[in-house]
Design brief:
This protein is α+β, with helices and mostly antiparallel strands. The protein is built from 19 helices and 12 strands. Strands 1-2-8-5-3 form a 5-stranded mixed β-sheet. Strands 4-12-9 form a 3-stranded antiparallel β-sheet. The longest helix has 32 residues, at 248-279. The termini are far apart. It binds protoporphyrin IX containing FE (HEM). Protoporphyrin IX containing FE is lined by residues 86-87, 98, 148, 257-258, 261-262, 265-266, 269, 322-323, 326-327, 385-389, 391-395, 398-399.
């Protein structure tokens, strides 16, 4: 039987590397231990087998849902999203809840968001000063926060909306850097030592957000929901087989899940896209040419379908995938993956970052080359920035639509340059891989 190698360094040190230098940690281990290795990250899960060979990824992502639990392995997100979150559920309850949310993210539904995304992007960029450097993250967060609040609550202006937006941003910022992310990874830091302690502050902001969400839920319960298109209204109308609706706490957890999953990730992806497009002039020129050929005020769906724009967005998600790993899968029964035989309860983590950097599939993998997506079709186990199988990202269609429309609007209606700045590196932001926070652009037109 083939055994999986484990790093010799202590688990606490491995966790430290995983938090502060995640891509270095993955690459070093792969070089020293082979493409499949067993990490000990000293958190609630003991062993954590990273796999990256497409055949192995296929075995895991295409297995029937009953073979793995994934919600159970997402425990560290519990304090953020709550126990009823889709991210933490498994089995029949997960399936049922996913079916409930699915229609809101269906491709057809996305069409209605096209105009809104373009408008919200314009509003956000108009607020940035001309001729001065601005933080790319602030811009992309503003766009994606506004889009997700519109999709989830149907809100895009007014006091209630502004308060929600600010509170949500502060809440998400609590885990926004490597140091701050430690709050999620290290249970020992999760102690309320008063309002000035990190955990005390986290709980206080979470309470503020909850109050706003519960108030919104109460108001909606009393209002007429007919003709409303937003996700909260759909969830309020949903009934299970016994005719039971969702409780306030269930609704709260799902709303926070969508706000978190839908905002952070897309803001990061858009920031990376803006960086690459301005880093490689030839990419920007070709992209602008392709988009402007559609004429003024193009149909959002026509923009969405543009091949080079699609290739640029795919390459952005390939080179630094926002999620470095899919949700870890806990085997519910013994499983054979390639030459390895794993017992039940093994935690298997398809590593998106390592697969996306396999030189046999993506030659010169550290270079940004959108053309590769025009020259070759990749399988969903070679290129999988949104994971796969029964846990595949629910917001994939919305995220791609948003990424493309926001990028197209920004670069065709304005001009930007990259100022001299320290090299932009991928750094941890919560559980995502983001450009270093200082990344800025200058709006020249
Ligand atoms: C570029 C943006 C995004 C990326 C890269 C991304 C990536 C991912 C990944 C890798 C997973 C785990 C899949 C797996 O383990 O197989 C996931 C799950 C999920 N994502 Fe996204 N996501 C993005 C945007 C969004 C958006 C916009 C939403 C919703 C508004 C969203 C909602 C979710 C949800 C609810 C899940 C959990 C699905 C489940 O447990 O069944 N994501 N996403």
């Amino acid at each position: 039987m083939v055994t999986v190698n484990t790093p010799k360094t202590p688990p606490q040190w491995q966790l430290f590397e995983w938090i502060f230098d995640p891509t270095g940690y993955l690459e070093r281990n792969q070089n020293q231990l082979g493409e499949t290795f067993n990490a000990h990250l000293g958190v609630n899960l003991d062993g954590f087998v990273f796999v990256s060979h497409p055949d192995h990824v296929r075995t895991i992502l295409s297995a029937p849902a009953r073979c793995f639990d994934a919600g159970r392995a997402n425990g560290i997100l519990g304090p953020l999203v709550g126990d009823n979150s889709l991210l933490l559920l498994d089995g029949a309850v997960h399936k049922q809840q996913r079916q409930l949310l699915m229609p809101s993210f269906h491709g057809d539904r996305m069409v209605t968001y096209g105009e809104i995304i373009t408008q919200l992007t314009r509003r956000a960029i108009d607020r940035q000063p001309q001729g001065e450097a601005f933080r790319v993250r602030s811009l992309t967060e503003e766009i994606t926060m506004r889009v997700i609040l519109q999709a989830v609550f149907g809100l895009n202006q007014g006091d209630q909306y502004e308060t929600m937006r600010r509170t949500m941003s502060t809440f998400l910022d609590m885990t926004a850097s490597p140091v701050k992310s430690s709050l999620l990874f290290l249970k020992s830091l999760q102690r309320n030592l008063g309002p000035w302690s990190p955990w005390g502050r986290f709980l206080a902001i979470r309470d503020q957000l909850d109050e706003l969400l519960y108030r919104e839920i109460q108001q909606r319960r009393q209002a007429s929901l007919e003709e409303r298109q937003d996700i909260l209204s759909l969830l309020l109308l949903a009934r299970d087989e016994e005719g039971q609706g969702m409780s306030d706490k269930e609704l709260r957890d799902e709303l926070v899940t969508l706000l978190l999953a839908g905002h952070e990730t897309t803001a990061t992806a858009l920031a990376w896209a803006l960086y690459w497009v301005h880093r490689v002039d030839s990419v920007r020129d070709r992209l602008i040419e392709e988009i402007t050929a559609l004429g003024e005020n193009p149909d959002p769906m026509a923009v969405f379908k543009l091949p080079y724009l699609t290739a640029v967005c795919n390459e952005t998600l390939r080179i630094y995938p926002v999620a470095m790993v899919t949700f870890p899968r806990i085997a519910k029964e013994p499983i054979q993956v390639g030459d390895y035989q794993f017992p039940a309860e093994t935690v298997l983590a398809p590593c998106i970052y390592l697969t996306h950097h396999r030189e046999d599939i993506f030659p010169d993998s550290h270079s940004f080359k959108p053309e590769r997506f025009l020259e070759r079709q990749y399988s969903p186990y070679e290129f999988y920035p949104f994971g796969g199988g029964n846990r595949r990202c629910l917001g994939m269609a919305l995220a791609m639509y948003e990424l493309k429309l926001a990028l197209a609007t920004l670069i065709t209606e304005h001009e930007f340059t990259l100022p001299d700045q320290p090299p932009v590196k991928p750094v941890r932001r919560g559980i995502t891989l983001a450009p270093s926070p200082g990344l800025s652009l200058i709006k020249t037109r």
